[in-house]
Design a protein that fits this description.
Mean pLDDT: 83
CATH superfamily: Autotransporter beta-domain
Largest sheet: 12 strands, antiparallel, barrel
Order of helices and strands: HEEEEEEEEEEEEEEEEE
CATH architecture: Beta Barrel
Helix content: under 10%
Number of helices: 1
Low-confidence stretches: 1-45
Oligomer: single chain
Number of domains: 1
Strand content: over 45%
């Protein structure tokens, strides 16, 4: 193997205050690993504390986030790359609106990521690097709570006190991101993905305990690298978060998630490895002015077989209006 020989080819390593105030300053649905997984077809787990929180109908959230990730980012079990290491910067814009769905609280969201990064690894015995800059895949979704979360206008919301909430949601990833079929590493996945999820949130005084389970489902990528066909089995995820609410709308959480499955087939040939990843995250949210808040997130993890294995820091700004 050449000693640190750098190759950049066209195949391009291949490219690739009150309780009400506290609830109102929550981030609703977004952003944990969204900016980390802007394009990976093997979406690990997204640690989303307070995704079930009830907010007044008609509340809007505009979100802008920056994330830095380093490590094994965007590794797909189908890719013939060893010792993959990356440094990636991501910017994500998102919009969330709370709505009334059959008398229960619900939310709709849209998320658009942009990413730039450098990847290095061993491809066919040669040390290789690649750089990518562009848009990731567009994501949009809808969630509703079917227990413990009535749809309320702002005036009637001050008397609402959460106990136990149960909800269902679905996220959809559209193949809109940057993608080149002659490259292995891309910022888009060139296939649709769907993630149905069930979750429960239980409040005890100023503490919240949340559980969620979901499954990622993928369509076939018929334009995978070098003219191949890529298929992937579902990926299951379990998550748990513990959240503490403080005065003046401040809250913090710690969480863990485990993702498994996602075995891939290239031209109908099964690959040996499957995704098996555990991730840990910590979050703090601080309102800086009425309707404005900042969120700091740290995530780390470990893969047991295959899957994304990286560390990240995310800073998110949120503006809320009703």
């Amino acid at each position: 193997m050449p000693d640190k020989e750098i190759h950049k080819t066209s195949i391009n390593f291949p490219a690739g205050g009150s309780d009400l105030s506290s609830r109102m300053h929550s981030d609703c649905l977004i952003l944990m690993a969204i900016m980390l997984l802007v394009s990976s077809p093997g979406f690990s787990q997204e640690l989303e504390p307070r995704s079930l929180v009830n907010v007044p109908v008609g509340t809007n959230f505009a979100i802008l986030g920056y994330g830095y990730a380093s490590g094994n980012v965007l590794l797909d079990p189908a890719l013939p790359i060893e010792d993959l290491n990356a440094k990636m910067h991501s910017i994500v814009g998102a919009y969330v609106r709370s709505v009334n769905f059959l008398g229960m609280g619900a939310k709709a969201n849209v998320i658009l990521p942009f990413a730039a990064g450098d990847w290095g690894g061993v491809y066919q015995g040669i040390d290789t690097v690649a750089a990518r800059t562009g848009m990731g895949d567009l994501r949009f979704g809808f969630s509703f709570n079917f227990a413990g979360s009535p749809a309320l206008k702002k005036d009637g919301f001050k008397d609402y006190m959460q106990k136990t909430i149960a909800g269902f949601g679905i996220q959809v990833v559209a193949p809109t991101g940057q993608y080149f079929d002659e490259r292995l590493i891309n910022l888009g996945s060139n296939r649709w993905a769907f993630r149905p999820q069930l979750g429960v949130s239980h409040k005890i005084k100023s503490w919240y305990l949340e559980y969620a389970a979901n499954v990622w489902l993928f369509t076939t990528n018929n334009e995978f690298w070098d003219g191949k066909k890529l298929e992937q089995m579902p990926i299951g995820t379990f998550k748990v978060s513990v959240i503490k609410s403080f005065n003046k709308g401040i809250w913090a959480s710690v969480g863990a998630g485990y993702a498994f499955g996602g075995r891939t087939y290239v031209n109908d040939v099964k690959r040996d490895m499957r995704i098996s990843v555990i991730r840990l995250g910590a979050i703090i949210v601080v309102p800086v002015r009425p309707h404005h808040s900042l969120k700091l997130t740290a995530v780390t993890g470990q893969r047991f077989e295959q899957g994304a294995d990286f560390d990240t820091i995310i800073l998110t700004y949120q503006f809320m209006w009703n």
